[in-house]
Write a structure and sequence with these properties.
Four copies of one chain form a homotetramer.
Chain A (H helix, E strand, L loop, with lengths): L9 E2 L5 E2 L21 E3 L15 E4 L5 E2 L7 E6 L7 H16 L3 E4 L16 E2 L2 H4 L19 H10 L4 E6 L1 H16 L5 E6 L15 H21 L3 E7 L6 H10 L4 E3 L13 H12 L1 E7 L13 E2 L5 E2 L3 H15 L5 E5 L3 H4 L5 H19 L2 E2 L1 E6 L2 E6 H5 L10 H9 L6
Parallel strand pairs in A: 6-7, 6-9, 9-10, 10-18, 11-13, 11-16, 12-13
Antiparallel strand pairs in A: 1-17, 2-5, 3-4, 4-19, 7-8, 14-15, 18-19
Helix pairs in contact in A: 1-10, 3-4, 5-6, 6-12
Chain lengths: 434, 434, 434, 434
């Protein structure tokens, strides 16, 4: 169980320098725009008796500090993007650069190539020096201009690399595995007494990182997923007994499948990892689908890639280079099962299977994610300049916060079945209460 | 000052009926999806000593109740949309209808024509009976299929109208003025002992209603506003000493101007009602603009319609049919002042003025707003079916909540200058700290 | 070889009625807006000696006739949409309806359900009576509100159906197979002496119907295909030796693959049915791809579904319900071949395969296609009202024209390798001259 | 009247060099992709007797020549963008650069800053050397990365500038005035015996340049204009007797207003320069608008900026820096007249006026325009490399062609009232035949 002391952030040392940010208001009646370590945000917003320990759990608020640890003019920072693509990576790179270079006056900001691989000297990959010309147009582009790669690298080799290049601050943009790597970097760095601030920025298109309410990329994913669902709906309605089957991302958490279903309002069955569903029997998916076709003449099914994995139990399990369990393909599995089911019943259906995957994650960030990216990136810069380390930027109750990385990587975040989101799914489609 | 008792919601009476919603999970280990009146959400999420009275302010959570006040099969509901357009109105209408008709089984849902005017019998406007065929495609359309109008109508006449047609529930979608009208309706109805539930759904593209964190329509407005700012930026850069001047909505609050500036990352000056700015003098806007042109060759200015109204002091003040103060046109004013300033200095500039107004508010809702609309609408239905009245749906700390309307209409919401949003503006543009 | 007499259009009889269209200008100096049968459009616009027979080939211009065959108030028309979806079907339905109902005053316009199947009485499918309320919003929707189906039906059964319901005019929207069906309908109808006008409207997202320069749906397909190519490019650049492989539509003709490559300017290899390519050897695709990766670090390949079918020679060949040859999956084939090739060379690559298919064809029509649809649909109405039959609307040299259906179905249209389009592909990518 | 000799293109001299373009097919059975001067495209595609002189008018086909005038390795080229913005300018710049640099091997391509002003030495503006890094991402951006300016500059000063920098080829992207400037440059250059190829690329968002069927930018303008019309329609329908009035571009020609009306299918009155309309009287616009409101309750009016100028006769007439006549503001004029008319009749209306202007012209090019830009740009490069001068790229009957600039600037192109486009407008709205 999470304890208050698990939520205390580490610092490299005392903040002896005055922030160069011009955040004091000229007019005396306005509050300062600086934030303070002592201000903490509750994790639980439900009114509870104070004796309830959960009522006291809180996280340090993010934001610029009036006193900082690093002297900007003598600081070198670097940023690395790891793992699969998510809309907004370039926006994060751009805002990290602008905040450091323009606002703090940090003269040297490096872009590490191709993820953690680019932090090892034997990869042969050289960091690039970021400039205003280079980063200015990138916020309109999908992907990451730095490239990415999957998989861990030895912390020793990476700290060697950082020290050899005099890097004082490293921003690690990535998912669970990346944050674990950031934690290892922070520990190895501290072990050597190297005053390097390691600050994580969470990247999870699935929205499944703890202490992050809406990860950047997620809203864009919903937008694109809803477009694909609309196509599936159009296809389903265009045929006699048409079935549109859409596979969406979501290894452990069904946020994309659920959110896109609510956005589109055209989905009849939403299958997510958090809610097991029977395939066969009167209460199963196949029979429910048959009933839907009989009454409405068409149906749309959305399935998260991590849903229904129990159906594959006993089969071999593979992992990708980042160590993520490779799921069995539930989309193709359902496509085949449904086809077979209706064939056996001599019930002609027209099934269209859509698997948009890369298309969804490689597009530029939408308006909501652009704000998220900018604020996460600048919050990360403030944390780093104040000497915080081993910390990831999170969000809770409409505030950006500092989360100690160990607390992040020991948690996992899934969609609660009692949440507003899942209830919204159930209210908009008519699927059985499995 | 707000007191806890101001935040207690009124009810028409005891909830004697069982909800027809199938929200109990089949599997015993899962929580029920029903919400309870006793669950309340804190308004202030900062960790404070319990003795601090603000720490105790809270609102009743929204959501479906297990026991309800109205018998669905004998209930007639109606919905009315008032005031200026905002993206998402049709989505609200559609989700209110579907939740009532499909989920609760309410057989008769009426759409009131053209705002409160359509609730008066001498308007000659007849409500339309909403059907699945009618509402099914409307979530892809901007505007409101019911039409709208501005201005108040006598509560007596409207309650006469509701009683004459046997309407048990009325949903009032609109801004401050509309909610004031809803409150009057609720009072007049109670005075007569008419058991009519009046539930407000806040509509404010400016995002300036209290107890609503992100009003529907606002995110879509940012998206469209950012497109226009991008055009202004392109125009400014395409000319020698090009100036792009964009006027955006925001009578009392600068949320749209600020948010769109953060989204676009291309704005040099963001002028909002909350932050007065000097026009003349070395610290004034005009001199700062001149410095910007000298160093960068182009500039983009975004001004909220309510900004700089102090510059018009002493002039006549007009009001629209809803009683809103009609602002002087700050956009045209700045356009003329800037042109004059540089003409006097013999400094050739190419100023392009963009005033997108209607274009921004009449588009279909984007993905984020579609979720907001769906959840607000269904929350409103749950509140009404449970017999709540004189209540508006709000949002606080990531939860939808019930807000007594009197608490709403006595508050006003503006952008705090110490907020993350305004700080994000200042961090992304280089404007002076006025 | 095509002869001038092959291009003469058939008529049901003399045009004895005056058109109700108000197309005479009030001012005497303006030309009438009516078109005449005697006006013909050249098929070949190159300046040639008149003795060259191709110089004389021409088609009757489309457009409203001043004298018409049917009496509008006594006419019943119907429209049927067949085969796979293409953006713009609903726009065609809508404009056909409006032109008939609003402009000509035809009181009864029927929508046939689910393609030619809906023209057989034993399908049990009933036509729907189109109304303004029904068609008004459909131009913003993808797909077809009438539904579709694949495959031919007996002409006798369909003419029985038309006669039983008193249908005077039938619009057949579909591809090659559909036009063949329209021709059969026209012949059977004439055989019986039934004065039914059968008018075809070409639908081919692949743009491969003869005598149609830009079929509706094609421009929209390019737009969506280019979005997917952009995602593939982003993926390819985001990885070390990233390869983005995109399969696009195009059974017999590479117009979509070629056009989308020119739009995106990010494609390195464009593979189309018209240009065979070697897979192996120094001049083959695989070696060229390896050279590209070595020099640039990433590559994007676009392959039309009908490309490289010679690679499957000798394997079994299947057909769909419309009789179209089912192609072997060249996309999956290339994905596997490329993976294998680089594995054998111990050259690590990151291949991302995108197969957007349904997503591209199910979206609403874009601006260009909306104009095409409107003009094609209204041209078809004019042709039908003037008693033309066995005719399809085509386009040549910027004019809409009447094409006798037999001339259409005996031709096939592919992309010429000496065309501007294919040259544009070769100029924008660096692929070998296979 | 146009004579065949007016359509002969000038050349700098004999083409003594072999083209480096690899456009011969490897396989012997395929045609070469090179074009030849002797191939000419008919201007008139209607079948006419050969004795008709119009039947013989033709233009030289554009495209790469097998023999060229300039030696690529010793050639310096430059490109200049003039006048108001139009979507696609950056696409043109990019494709001109890539064709020259990548395909022909021209090592030095300069970008002239801010239009013709940047071709005068006393402007102080220096050309920039274009590189792959610089132009690679610009096709996704609106505007022109080179900047623009209005107005003519002395041909002598500009040829001095070209000679001083050793520029052999100049591409002039702009409208009528720009092409007149290009002609002057070509004449001055020939007078001096300076072998400089001057090639024009037509830019006209209004689509009003002769010998250019669909100018780049026009299709994008339709797309954005249709979005604004949709907003106007939504506003009009949202109010009681709502009127949406939209002013669009179109000084001399109504192509944008007409095309956008056909796209949107929601316009009731389309007012263009080519068709005068009475304001008052039973047949006038105001009375027709009143009838429309009485029958339908709302109306949408689209007015081209050059429409109804006869209403201002006798007032002062101003010109902009490019010498274009500044029109009186017909949009504001109609807004006031309509308001006054209904006020006098005590007929309450809600008029919403939308003037999107800059927003429409500053966006990135859409898919159709991207193809146009690419092909126009590369055609211009081929013409220039072959030593053509005083020539503009045009399009006729689906082919790109070479047009002698004097033939362009003495013609003017307006929308013919008997065209398919205007007929489509009249068929989709119900406006009187003025």
């Amino acid at each position: 169980m999470l304890m208050p002391q698990d939520l205390i952030v580490k610092s490299l040392g005392a903040c002896e320098h005055i922030s160069p940010l011009k955040l004091e208001s000229a007019s005396h009646h306005q509050a300062s725009y600086f934030a303070e370590d002592s201000q903490r945000i509750r994790l639980d917003v439900k009114l509870r008796p104070e004796s309830d320990p959960e009522a006291q759990l809180s996280l340090e608020v993010a934001g610029p500090r009036q006193r900082i640890y690093f002297r900007p003019a003598h600081t070198t920072a670097a940023i690395v993007t790891c793992g699969g693509l998510s809309p907004g990576l370039n926006n994060v790179i751009r805002s990290v650069f602008y905040e450091l270079f323009e606002n703090y006056g940090v003269p040297r900001v490096l872009g590490i190539k191709n993820g953690y691989l680019g932090l090892t000297s034997n990869s042969g990959l050289e960091p690039i020096l970021l400039t205003k010309e280079f980063v200015e147009p990138i916020d309109k582009l999908g992907g990451t201009v730095l490239g990415s790669s999957r998989g861990a690298q030895p912390a020793e080799a990476m700290v060697d690399f950082l020290q050899a290049r005099g890097i004082d601050i490293l921003f690690c943009v990535g998912g669970d595995g990346t944050q674990r790597g950031a934690h290892a970097l922070s520990q190895e760095s501290q072990r050597r007494g190297a005053n390097i601030a390691i600050v994580g920025i969470p990247k999870t298109i699935d929205n499944d990182i703890a202490f992050v309410r809406l990860a950047f990329g997620y809203a864009t994913a919903l937008e694109k997923a809803a477009e694909v669902i609309q196509a599936a709906h159009v296809e389903a309605r265009g045929a006699i007994n048409g079935i549109g089957l859409v596979k969406l991302m979501g290894r452990h958490a069904g946020f994309i499948a659920a959110g896109a279903s609510v956005v589109s309002q055209e989905v009849d069955f939403t299958l997510v990892p958090e809610v097991p569903f029977p395939l066969d029997g009167a209460e199963g998916l196949l029979a429910a689908l048959e009933r839907r076709l009989q009454s409405a003449g068409h149906a749309v099914i959305v399935v998260a890639e991590g849903a229904g994995q129990f159906l594959f139990e006993g089969t071999n399990q593979l992992r990708d280079a980042s160590g993520n369990l490779l799921h069995q393909d539930i989309g193709a599995f359902l496509r085949d099962k449904i086809t077979e089911y209706f064939k056996q019943r001599d019930f002609p259906v027209a099934l269209k299977y859509l698997d948009p995957s890369y298309f969804i994650r490689s597009v530029p960030a939408n308006v909501f994610d652009r704000i998220q990216c900018d604020q996460m990136a600048r919050s990360a810069v403030h944390a780093a300049m104040a000497g915080k380390t081993g910390v990831m930027i999170g969000s809770a109750s409409d505030h950006f916060v500092h989360v100690p990385i160990p607390a992040v990587v020991t948690q996992s975040k899934v969609m609660e079945v009692s949440s507003d989101l899942w209830r919204a799914v159930l209210q908009s489609n008519g699927q059985p209460r499995w």
